[in-house]
């Protein structure tokens, strides 16, 4: 009478490895999906006519001019405040979400009352964002950024190009800066991270993250090949990219650098008010002012 029970137990034991394998596979699939979702791109898209109207309200012009394939927006500099005022160029790489026309606060900051000298502000649009055709990926974003720098240098090779990266754009800025060391004397990285694998590893096992991510966005490796000035702005209450990863990136850089932390800010609630003294500090630093090693 005990034999059926024995057979059932034996069968169950035989099935355990199969069940465990199925559960492990299911977990791996779920983990894979979760990791991929960490770098799912979140572009905002609008018709070109809508974008042009929005840009005009914000004081932005198409870059290049209307009639050509637009790659972003341009904020022409205000009238010089003195004959001695130097005109500089800064190129903005925005974060994962939204689109470049909504980053006009960078133009307001660089051209506001606290800024040093005069700035031409260029805001790059990524492939697949706004009305720009293409599909976003690390290769696509970096290639678009390289093309933007090339255009600026072709237009005027005598003037350097300063770079600003925001969130995902900090990796783009770091990579591009390392490839143009003579043309890019300084970069500003806002809520940066070491690399996207480290970001994923704060939520999932590292070996899985490393196995499934194709885009790496390795700022740490790029900055190891760069020797210019690096400014870093961190959000003390960052809810998307941990503040510690930005601090680690800053600590690991051995060139001229300066750190700002907005202690109460979250990833998307940093203070970009053009009246903030921070703009005077950061523009002075980019141009070779006070640094901390």
Explain the overall architecture.
The protein is an alpha/beta fold. It has helices at 3-38, 48-57, 104-110, 138-155, 168-179, 196-201, 206-212, 219-223, 243-252, 277-286; strands at 42-43, 61-63, 72-75, 87-93, 97-98, 118-124, 162-166, 186-190, 229-235, 257-262. α4 (138-155) crosses α5.
Detail the topology: elements first, then pairings.
Layout: H1 3-38, E1 42-43, H2 48-57, E2 61-63, E3 72-75, E4 87-93, E5 97-98, H3 104-110, E6 118-124, H4 138-155, E7 162-166, H5 168-179, E8 186-190, H6 196-201, H7 206-212, H8 219-223, E9 229-235, H9 243-252, E10 257-262, H10 277-286
Parallel strand pairs: 1-5, 4-6, 4-7, 7-8, 8-9, 9-10
Antiparallel strand pairs: 2-3, 3-6
Helix pairs in contact: 4-5
Question: Would you kindly provide a brief summary of this structure?
Answer:
With about 290 residues, the chain is an alpha/beta fold.
Q: What integer value in Å does the Rg equal?
A: 23 Å
One letter per element, helices H and strands E, the order comes to HEHEEEEHEHEHEHHHEHEH
Strand arrangement in the largest pleated sheet: 2-3-6-4-7-8-9-10
List the total number of helices.
10
The largest pleated sheet is described as:
8 strands, mixed
- The total beta strand count reads 10
Which stretches are poorly predicted, pLDDT < 50 over at least 5 residues?
1-12
Fraction in beta strands: 15-25%
Give the averaged pLDDT, no decimals. Answer: 87
Question: What coarse outline follows from CA principal-axis ratios?
Answer: globular
Q: What is the first-to-last residue Cα distance?
A: 81 Å
Structural class, judged by helices and strands?
Answer: alpha/beta
Helix content: 40-55%
